[in-house]
Amino acid sequence: MPELPEVEAAKRLVSSHCLGGTIVKAIVDNDVKVIDGLTPAQLQEALEGKKILTAHRRGKHMWLQLNCPRWPTFQFGMSGAIIVKGVKGPTYKSSKVNEDEEFPTQYSKVHLKLDTGVELAFTDKRRFARVRLLEDPEKVAPISELGPDAYLELPSPEDLITSVKSKKGAIKALLLDQSFLAGIGNWVGDEFIWQAKIHPEQPANSLKEEEITKLHTSIKEVLDKAVSVDADSEQFPQTWLFHHRWDRKPGMIEGNQIETITISGRTSAFVPNIQKYSGPELKGAKTKSIAEGELPHEGEEMGEPDSDEIVAAGEMVVEKAGTSETPKRGRGRPPKAKGDSAVKSSPAAPSPAAATDNASPAGAKKRGRPPKLKTAPASAEDKTDVEETQKDSPSEPKRRGRPPKAKADASKEAVSKALEDDEDDDAAEVEDIADVDTALASPVTPKRRGRPPKAKPEATEELEITKKAKVGKDEEGTASPAGSAEPKRRGRPPKAKPETDEGEVAEAAAATPTPKKRGRPPKAKSAS
Question: For bias kind Basic residues, which ranges apply (predicted)?
Fold first, then answer.
């Protein structure tokens, strides 16, 4: 990324080759993201025919002063660069141009042709740069919002001490603030605090005056050296952190490992073994050590935490006479509730009230199914009574899924046997029907899920067939006696049967099962 040394080198390049030239042709790329505040055609019209008097820089901004206002300004962004045709310019990492590449390059945003034959181009590969046309750049934003230039207007050591002591943030974040010192970027800021041996997260107001004085010296020395070589990184001293910070896994410097951290959204490289953190403890570090039960390391001055600090950590549990107080919960998952030791050691079965008291404190949420309460009999006699009660009234345990099929009990078997015996004796059949009805009325059949079973012929239907045979209609169509009318049936009426003797009807009824009928079965009536 172009920072103060690279932008200063670009300004010097323009001052050496373009001053006094008149712009005869301006070619502006149709990139509305980079060309800010006006159209490419408006910028082209404003530049053509104007004479370049001088070039200015403040922080990371550069602008050309023309013979009449409005002046073009260039904010370099992440990869902006000034290129003069045929002249070697700054070769920093993000905007390096090959010598054999055509001019202007495909990334050119503004291409100027001067009457002196010099051609100037502003390029940007990543399109984070901005080109504006301003009346007086130093009096309008964004240039007017910048702080003093770190190279041209560096404050004195005394003034720098006063400014730094009034800030509370990390020193690296303060150096990146363009309203504090303009022109300092990521790699330059890392170089400053590396040479001053200051940790990047060190709070600015915790720095000693000697440390701020070293920082002032490193700012001046690093910028003077980088500007003097036109930001050519190959000429930077090998002792600089610059040569070891660019890889994804930084290497070693002076035999010490380089590490990276993120500060103000930027990756900062530092050497922990040399850049020691000497300020107040970082936010959250003390709370974390208490929560994890860590003890201070040898040589550390860390007093014993009071009760308020432990409660804030969310780990203190006060035990008093078998009772527990719920601590204030911090962030994250709440701790698991532990039962009192008195509950585990007591052999007697707790009462319902005691079980409620021994439960986890109110408001503590638990995940999963709650544990089953286990109770033990109070004495051996109670245990014997419980066993006898269970023997007297056995209850089937609750089972999941479909219940088992119920088996026919003795009463149902007796009914079936009685029906078989009645087939041989018609007279005995009528007398036993009452017993059969009584047996069938008893609720012995278990309830079943799903579709009900198919109905089987019952003894009452056989009795009705016998009655119909005795009191049925004759061949001439004589009506049945009063009080013996057939019940109404739903569905198709049964077929008429020929008149036969009572003995034959009884034998046919015993040998032939009753046909299945659709609809609701008729109500059974008592024998007349």
Answer: 515-528
pLDDT at residue 20 in the model: 95
What's the CA gap between 471 and 239, in Å, rounded? 129
Q: Give me the pLDDT at residue 245, please.
A: 84
Identify whether the C-beta of residue 457 lies closer than 8 Å to the C-beta of residue 513: yes
Nearest CA-CA partner of 112 in 39, 31, 49, 42: 49
Q: What is the pLDDT of residue 303?
A: 38
Who has greater pLDDT, 461 or 45?
Answer: 45
Contact residues for 59 (Cβ-Cβ < 8 A; gap 6+): 4, 7, 143, 146, 147, 149, 150, 178, 182, 183
Q: How, if at all, do strands 71-75 and 61-66 pair?
A: antiparallel
| Mean pLDDT on 475-483 | 43
Which member of 2, 72, 200, 250 is catalytic?
2
The pTM of the full predicted model, rounded to 2 decimals, is 0.55
What is the structure's pLDDT at 478? 45
Q: What angle do CA 305, 306, 309 make, to 5 degrees?
A: 75
3-class DSSP assignment, residue 390: helix
Question: Facing residues of 124 across strands?
Answer: 80
Both structure tokens of 495: 């077929």
pLDDT over threshold 60, residue 155:
yes
Share the mean pLDDT of the chain. 73
Q: From the candidates 5, 40, 50, 60, which is the catalytic residue?
A: 60
Q: Is the dihedral of CA 201, 204, 207, 213 positive or negative?
A: positive
Which entry of 3, 8, 191, 462 is annotated as an active-site residue?
Answer: 3
| Torsion (CA) 436, 439, 440, 443 in degrees, nearest 10 | 180
- 194-233 b/e (C-beta count within 10 Å ≥ 16 → b): bbbebbbbbbbeebeeebbbbbbebbeebbeebbeebbbb
**Cis peptide upstream of residue 104 (ω within 30 degrees of 0):** yes
Distance of CA 288 to the CA centre of its chain: 23
CA distance 418 to 303: 96
Judge whether 60 counts as a catalytic residue: yes
The arithmetic mean of pLDDT across residues 326-350, rounded, is 50
Cα distance between residue 148 and residue 179, in whole Å: 8
pLDDT tens-digit map of 105-138: 889 999 999 999 999 999 999 999 999 999 999 9
Total count of residues recorded for the chain: 528
Q: How large a percentage of the chain has pLDDT more than 90?
A: 44
